[in-house]
Amino acid sequence: MLKNKVAIVTGSTSGIGLGIARALASHGADIVLNGFGDCSEINEIRTDIERDHSVRVIHDGADMSKPAAVRRLIATTIEKLGRVDILVNNAGIQFTAPVEEFPIEKWDAILAINLSAAFHGIAAAIPSMKDRGWGRIINIASAHGLVGSAHKAAYVAAKHGMVGLTKVVGLETAGSGITVNAVCPGWVRTPLVEKQISDIAAGEHISQQEAAAELLGKKQPSQSFILPEQLGETVAFLCSPAADQITGTALSIDGGWTAQ
Ligand code: NAD
Q1: 55-110 residue pLDDT tens
Q2: Sign of the dihedral defined by the CA atoms of residues 23, 29, 35, 40, in that order
Q3: Which range marks the domain in which residue 77 is found?
Q4: Which end of the chain lies in a sparser environment, N or C, as judged by fewer CB atoms within 10 Å?
Q5: Which regions in the chain score pLDDT beneath 50?
C-alpha cells in the first residue's frame, strides 16, 4: 500500500514512534527514523526493519527541540530519499509538577519538542507534498490533547496545541491531496510512562505492578495498556485510501478515557 512512499517518524528509536515506523515499513514505506539512543542499538533497529520489510531505512538524529534542526530533517530526507510523503510528528517528553513549581526550562523544552517541532516539520514538508498532490501528516497528540490532568501543565498545553494545529493545517490543505490528523492515545506502556509508574510506586511504597494498575484504574476504563503496534496500524490506516477524506480530526485510541 505504501510502496515508494517515504515516511519520517520523529522520536522513533523507542516506544510508540518505533511501533509506527515498523507498521509503515510493513506496508512498504521507506523510513526515516529519528530520536536519541545508543548508536549500535539504533543501527540494529534500522537494519532489522530493513531486513524484515525490504525497505530503505535511515536514521537522522536531529534534535526536535531545535527549529533549524527540524527543518533540516525534512530537507535532508528529500536530498537522501528524494521525497517526503508521510510525516509523523511523534517525538515527545513529559515532566510533572504543580504549575507554580513547574521549572521554566521544562516548560520550554516540552513546548519546543511536543508542539513547536510539529509546526516546523509541517511548514517544511508541505511544499513538496503540495507539488506531488499527496501527503499524510499525523500528529501524535494524546488523551491529554482533549482533557487535562493535574501537574501536567506543559504537556496538556502542548497536546491541546497539537490538536489545534491539526485543525488549522487540515483546513489549509483540504482538497490538495494532503490530510492532517491527530492521534490521541491513552496510556501506552513505554519508557515515558514507565517513569510515571515508577514515581507512583516509589511515592506510595507499592510494587510496579500495583502502580501500573492504579494508573490505568484512574483514567483508562479498558484497564489495559494500548500497544505501540495498534497505534502503528492506526497511522497506517490514516495513510490508506480509506482515509482520504479524514482530515483535521483527532482520533482517540484510549480505551474509553475521554468518553468519561
Ligand atoms: P518514549 O520516551 O518511549 O519515546 C520518545 C521518543 O522521542 C524517543 O525515540 C526519544 O529518543 C525521542 N526524543 C525525545 N526527545 C527528543 C528530541 N529532542 N529530539 C528527537 N527525538 C527526541 O515515549 P512514547 O511514550 O513512545 O511517546 C511518543 C509520543 O507519544 C510522545 O509525543 C508522547 O507524548 C505521546 N504519547 C504517549 C503516551 C503514552 O502513554 N506512552 C500516551 C499519549 C501520547
Answers
A1: 999 999 999 999 999 999 999 999 999 999 999 999 999 999 999 999 999 999 99
A2: positive
A3: 6-186+227-252
A4: C
A5: none
Q: Is residue 259 assigned to a domain?
A: no
Locate all alpha helices (DSSP H) within 2-95, ordered by sequence.
15-26, 39-53, 67-81
Residues 97 and 207 in one domain: no
Count CB atoms within 10 A of the CB of residue 107. 18
Query: From the CB of 32, is ligand 1 less than 6 Å away?
Result: no
Catalytic (active site) residue 73? no
pLDDT of residue 72: 98
The answer on 231 and 221 residing in a single domain is no
Give residue for cell 493545517: 169
Structure-derived torsion over alpha carbons of residues 21, 234, 167, 225, reported in degrees to the nearest 10 = -90
Beta bridge partners of residue 181, listed in sequence order: 138
Query: How many angstroms separate the alpha carbon of residue 216 from the centre of ligand 1?
Result: 19
Q: What is the pLDDT of residue 76?
A: 98
State how far the Cα of 254 lies from the Cα of 242, in Å rounded to an integer. Answer: 22
| pTM exceeds 0.85 for this model | yes
Q: Is 60 in the pocket of ligand 1 (CB under 6 A)?
A: no
Determine, yes or no, domain membership for 155. yes
CB of 148 within 8 A of CB of 193?
no
∠ at Cα 83 (79, 89), nearest 5°?
Answer: 100
